[in-house]
Amino acid sequence: FDFKPKGHLELGEGLDIIRQRRLSHVSGHRSYYLCGAGALLQHALVTFTLQKLLSKGFLPMTVPDLLRGAVFEGCGVQPSATPSQVYTIDPARFEDLCLAGTSEVGIAGYFMDHAVQLQDLPVRVVCSSTCYRTETDTGREPWGLYRVHQFTKVEMFGVTAAERGTESEELLDEFLGLQKEIFSELGLHYR
């Protein structure tokens, strides 16, 4: 470049579409507002991705934001770990409920007591959800809209058979190919 490139936060603040500074009195540390074109951009990216995956045969799903600890544990997440990246709801009022950090946990919870016929596999699910994470302190200040407490994400989830032993890897390769396709169509660089 023949100029000094700006990062997403500096660009967003200059365009008045992102606000991350001066929010401690509203929502504390590591949060943000998306305004005007910033909010529309988020909705457009979610819609674009959902439409792309629906055209590929994905089942759309919405999931609960609050889930029981056993569902997290089934996904390899320990909500009671110290420190934990999981927000736990006041146990005096709501026993064993936590805020989901990813829709993966909610989708896995759906399938943990839901029978799927072998001939219906693989199942491909797409979910857009709000994700809540405590984001542990890394010892340095994260920059921009990274390592924030709440964000929106579109996620692919698959349920496969294990008849040949390669089904899961094949579906993961398919998902990776779809991610590359989405980034390429958006004109974004990725690795």
Automatic annotation (TrEMBL):
Domain of life from the UniProt record: Eukaryota
Any GO MF annotation of the entry: ATP binding
The keyword Transcription regulation is annotated on this UniProt entry: no
Broad EC category: ligase
Protein keywords: Aminoacyl-tRNA synthetase, ATP-binding, Ligase, Nucleotide-binding
Residue stretches making up the Aminoacyl-transfer RNA synthetases class-II family profile domain: 2-191
Catalytic activity, EC: 6.1.1.11
Any GO BP: seryl-tRNA aminoacylation
InterPro entries: aa-tRNA-synt_IIb (IPR002314), aa-tRNA-synth_II (IPR006195), aa-tRNA-synth_II/BPL/LPL (IPR045864), Ser-tRNA-ligase_type_1 (IPR002317)
Family according to the record: Belongs to the class-II aminoacyl-tRNA synthetase family. Type-1 seryl-tRNA synthetase subfamily.
Protein name listed in UniProt: serine--tRNA ligase
Naturally occurring in which organism (per UniProt): Vidua macroura
Gene of this entry: Sars2
